[in-house]
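Why this split exists: single-chain examples teach little about how molecules sit against one another. For that reason, every record in the complexes split bundles all components of an assembly together and asks for one structure covering all of them. Below is a record exactly as it appears in the raw files.
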Amino acid sequence: MAITARTALWIALALLVMAVPSVASADDGTERDTLQERFAPKDGRFFVHGSATALVRDDFYHSIGYGGDLGYYFNERIGIELRVINLHSRLAHAGEKMREEHDFVPDLRAPDALATVGTRISWGYGKVLTLGQFVVHFDPQLTLHGGLMLAERRLVPTTTAGIGFLTHWQKGIQIKLDLQASVHFEQRTRGTIPAVGFLPVFSIGWSPGAGGDL
Amino acid sequence: MSLAASGCVPLADRTPARDDIFAPLHDADLSAFDHSLALDSHADREDAWTDVGQAFLAFANCRELERPSERVRDNPEALLVYELIRLEDHRRVRLRRGTAGAGRGSRSTATIHAQLQTPSFFNRDPADVDETLIRWPESSESWPDEWPAATAVDDECDALHRRQGPERLGAPFDDIAPFGLTGRLVIEWRFTDKVRAAMRAVNGDFEPRESLEYSLTAHRADLAVALSEQPDVEASAAALVDELARGALDDLLAIAPDDEETNPIDSTNLAIRTAWLAMTVGDPQLAIDNLHSLVDHDQEAVSNTARYYIVKIAWLEGWWSVAADASPELFDEPASLRSSHAFFASTAHRHDGRDDSFLGLAREALRDRRRNPDDPFLGALYREVLRELVRYEVDERTEELLEEFGPRGELATRQRELAEVALDAGRPEVAEEIIHPLLRETRDARQLPRMQAILALAAFLRDDQNEFDHQIEQLLDHRDGLQEAIPRHRRAAFFAHQDGELARVLRAMLPLMAEWGDDEPSRALRQKWLVAITEHTQDFIRRAPESAVSDNLTELYKLAGQLLDDHPRGYAERVGAEAPSASTLVLGTVNMPPTPPLDEIPRPRLRWPPVYSLLLIPHGAPPPEEFTTDISRPQEES
């Protein structure tokens, strides 16, 4: 079943609602700011993630892929990231039918790979209590990338932007989910027309030295 | 378990471990101190020391302190520290309220409150939070992996003067307002009782127990002194205040002054307190003993004040040699004590038989100075000098001495005063020896009546009626020569001086005669002089009826006439007198020693610094390992 852009948007909203911290215990009633140590500091640390993704566009293609992210955080707020994704694209059922019955093919080429460089901005910190005993610490992030997409020997300028949820686990493990909109500037029959898509990226990786106790 | 092993983060308490919760207080970092207490509260690890910490925090912020909680009352050491905070809190209010309008804490400059109330002393702002830490907004609930953040701590000391207290003090101080100075002293005294009880409850020793005992004893002495000086203590409470003062004195005497290592009250201040309390409870010997240790004090004002008190106390007790020994010389500062000290010191030498040193000191006090007529001490000293001089024959030495007891231009006045004192001392021949040369030398006619009056009285005392008559005639001669030239309505004023002298002589004679006894020769002698008085009085009234003293002398004439055996002259009747009590009763002369009025004797306050601190500030993880009495900011040390 194809994931449409609208469906992906609902998923993103649901994740946002989940990110609202729930109350776990009561204090003595004295109201004052509270402090908490970051579970996993990012300041000055590299990370490497393996990723799975899907590029969702109205282009008659199913594109899923895998790849990796390599990045570095200058501080707790800002980091840079290199993302390389290998995409496997095939015509969807409607596109296949059009090609067989009318010998029409989409003027968008099937995406084969994506390479972008961008920034990740942590604009907050959150935590979620799960099962009443485990806490998931996460950074809500904004992402902005730019790069090239390879589509059947064409190089297509591409930019992606969206929100991300970087969760921290023990032993330096990081799991993140990026929900990005993508814009591709590809030469089509009517000229260079932007093609908009949705690019969710699910990553699991590791950041050296991250994690640890207070 | 498998989730945890795989990287899940279990929900756990991340509150920092408990350390020395009082350490920030020693660094004068109130925000951090408040933070450490909040951590205790958050982690549900509060104990008696947390309550003590809260009390310190309230004290530093001038908030009203609560009564000790049950867990504090169950912990003797914590209770002692707590009660000390309350005691210092009350002391601070008293010191501050005692200086309304005189600036913040101006009377507490020598106490720990001076620095505690300096607005910049405490750091009240939270330190910057480490950037790696997450700061969550305040909420009534929080997660176990969060802990309270440090916050700014407000200073509420500007409202200290509005602090309320109990409505009544209780017997026997019912009539004293608890908000007045006396009331606050009573409250403070009661807190010292609480502290003493708490100290007794602490088992074993603690540092610095001895130092605290010294400070507390000295403070109770200060309170006792202050209470005994309050004018609004009713009679019912005065006995108790006196009892408190005696108790405080006994405690003070039990302090070992030589133990300077553990005694924060130095021996000088101890001696001042002891001396003052001894004076308060009326122990002159103890007061003098302690005042002697202050005579060599570095500050001249303290040293001289101590000398003054030694002399004054010994003088009033009649310990002449003690007073004389303590005053080999006079002093100029403080000026308020100069004349009174000169009087006590000089006269003590005289009473002790040290005539030379008496005259030497008196000369030093009076030499070349114009005496203030309102100064009772120099006046009394001067009269004492004259009384001393008339003991001897008049010679050149007398004049030389007299020259030294005041400005040279007023020597004649002093000579005349010496003659009058000689008359008072029953030495008319000395008075005549002084006045005769003076009478020959003087060119001032205004001085003559006084001199002639003195000579007339001297003649009376020598029972020389011829000379007496002669001097009276001399006195009236001036009037005869001028009377016709002066209009009648101006005569009273013109002759007021010499008429007054005549009246003075005649008036002075009656009481002197009353002392002559009641034997026959005395009665005869008295009759002789009564006749002289009546004749001279009658003669004067006839010659000068318009005189200002005529009424006065008419009364004298009637009185003398009544005393005459033959009761002559038609004026003796008292018929019509408004009241029998109006009759004059002549008993004799009263010789008043030259003592200045007791209520004018200066009682300068010997000042001494109050006890610096009565606090015990815990140090080390609860329970504390030691206590200190002060807070010093690290930056001040550097």
